[in-house]
Design a protein that fits this description.
The termini are far apart. The protein is rod-shaped, with a radius of gyration of 33 Å. A 4-stranded mixed β-sheet has the order 1-6-5-4, with no helix packed on it. A 4-stranded antiparallel β-sheet has the order 2-3-8-7, with no helix packed on it. Helix content is about 5%, strand content about 30%. The protein is mainly β.
Length: about 170
Amino acid sequence: MSTILYNPFHEIDRMLDQVTKTATGESRLMPLDLFRDGDVYVAKMDLPGVDPSSIDIDVDDRTLSIRAERKSDEIRRDDESHWVSRERSYGAFARQLTLGTGLDLAHISADYTDGVLSLTIPIAEEAKPRKISVTSGQKHEPIEAAGTDEPGDEVPQATENQPQTVTA
C-alpha cells in the first residue's frame, strides 16, 4: 500500500506560483525601488539567493532589461524526504524598465550586494539644469551712418516697427 502525503499548503503554493508568473510563464516577481539621488537615479531590486554570474543586464534603445536565475534547492527524493511548504521563488526572474531621455545610458553601473541588485543611472550632462550668468555694464560701439561726418548728421535709430540693419 502506498502512502499519499497530505500537503495543506499545496493550494497556497499553486496560487502564489500563478500570481508571481508573468504572461510568458517563465519570469517571477522582482520587487523594485526607484529613487533619484542628486544627479543619478538608483534602482534597487531584491534578488536573494541569486548567483551574481547569472545576472544579465543590457540596454537596447531605451529599454533596460534585467534577467537573473535562482536555482532550486535539491532534496532527496525518497519516503523520508519531501517538501512540506515551498514559498520561495525559483527559476528565471526578469524585469524591463523603459528609460526616458536625458539619461547617460553609457555610464549605467550595477552592484550586487547582500541579495540586492543596485543600478545607478546617471543623468546626462546636457539634461542637467545649469545657470546662465548675466553681465552688466558692457558698452557697445555706436553705429556710424554712411555719409559725411558733418555736425547735424545723425545715426538713424530703430523704432519698434522698423528694424535697423547693421552691416560690418
